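This section describes the prediction task in plain terms. A model, or a person checking by hand, is given the sequence of a single protein chain and must write out its three-dimensional structure as a string of tokens. No templates, partner chains or ligands are provided. The sample shown here is typical of the held-out split.
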Amino acid sequence: MLTSVLIANRGEIALRVIRACRAAGLRSIAIYTDLDRQAPHVREADDAIRVGSYLDIGEVVAAAQAADADAVHPGYGFLSERAEFARAVEAAGLKLVGPSAAVMEQMGRKDAAREIAVAAGVPVVPRGAGEGGDAGELRFPVLVKAAAGGGGKGMRIVRSAEEYDAALASAKREAASAFGDDTILVEKYVEHGRHIEVQVMADAHGTVVHLYERDCSTQRRHQKVLEEAPAPTISTAVRDLVTGSAVALAREVGYVNAGTVEFLLDTDTGEAYFLEMNTRLQVEHPVTELVTGVDLVALQLRVADGEPLGLTQDDIHLDGHAIEARVYAEDAFHGFLPQAGTASLVRWPARARVDAALESGQVVSTAYDPMLGKVIVHGPDRESARRALVDALDETAILGFTTNVGFLRVLAASDEFRDATIDTAWLDTVSIGGGELPAPDDDLARVVAAWTQAMLVATDFKNGTPHPFQYDGFRLGAEPAPHLVELDRVVRVDRARGEVDGVPVTELSAERHVVRLSVAGHRHQAVVNVTAHEVEVVLEGQRHVFHKPDVFADSATAVGDGAITAQMPGTVLTVNVTPGQQVAAGETLGVLEAMKMELALKAPFDGTVAQVGATAGEQVAMGAVLFVVEEA
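The expected answer:
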């Protein structure tokens, strides 16, 4: 009988498993690295043990033994689909909350999984006729993909014989690097496909059930962005095919615990093909929980304890619709560049399920996956759920660094998502930041920022101790003078008239960083943070940063020994100098793009370039030394 579970993961999935353990009366044990010593999952668990790496199989298993754990829950990512990890857990006499190492090994390879699917009578994607031979025998387009892994690594779309050899070689190199195996499959490429996956659950007593399907077609470069359940576009016949096939495949391989069987639906032909099986819990499992009312993690723990599922297929029903949005530390409107920094203020929506481990004051580094959390909504039908998601993303605010929440909000509100016309290739072909998914402009956010800045100055004067240099707008024989606020440009705020640059503004409320204004007759709510040097505004999920003038600062350099460092994570746009080059004080050495602005990196004094530590196009971390100048 299970009494304690070590969670071999971090972040929101670790918190999710900890909650399930607590509900089941099980002791939870977290692991953490030095970066995560103060992380929420470490504080929330009943016990915690340090490890050097979440990927070190020996260390993780040793931690489970040292903590007297009975079982290990791998979550997702990290070691969750590593057969060698499952084997090490089994060898240590512990139970893995997941399938056996043997099953994981079979289903973890796309080539082996394909053969099992064929044996189970499950439809598979037709193979390229000339695989391993002459490219002239292939019917293009084809997809070459790594047999040993997923996540888009080792995967290339090939549209002509001329492209084939180069694409195959590139995919092999990437597969070898990512998975240590360069085996490649060549299959028909489906131009217009939808990604459908079926949640299965099986116990050790012969019961296998499905919990219906999810649609994860809204993805970018094979990474899911929005997920929903049930699938909005499939027919009853296709639903019966994919759910029945998923159960048959699980039976064929002797699967036990939670798993997901993925299919590709060809929208041009209506045919559905087996893609692969994920031998773990999925990131998007909450949408299935919301439409079925079944706690999947609780079932996982029950099955790992050797108990029967306690339910049959007839006990599982669909109720309404659920949609999940993945929140990432990335700037979606500027090339999806990864972001990092300290989350100065975090506000999650109150009217949605939130699976997250991000809180105010937390440092987010580039050391781990950029997913910060998930916002999940449920409604009686798809349109109700979609509108609820838009509302929930409006309430979501993360300040301190840029996230994709504003992008998610634009996407969820788009006609294409509303009409369920997005296929797996759509986000890779549209103009993000323009066209179908325009980036939010700064105009409305600047109005909010300027009004808030002026409001705080007036409030400070009214409530604080007045001094000669404090602005109050007073003048003899006239209304108070407008307040000129400089936020990257001068903005005229006339609180007496209720105007910002001539636009009518009415203040509805302002409390705890939440500002509600009526602007030109339309109501808006924003989360605002005003500091000495900038005003941050999150409006409809999108973060806007407006800089106040700082006459004393050189924003691009850190001068001391002549080192010029990156003051925030960003991308090097240009490098204008080479080592040994003579430069004058103030000369631009290069340009760094970060936080939606370009920073000129200037020589602090006359001298010689001693070091160039950056190349154009390179993403650099905060504090990275980009140039060193030796004083003349």
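For orientation: Confidence is low (pLDDT under 50) at residues 551-559.
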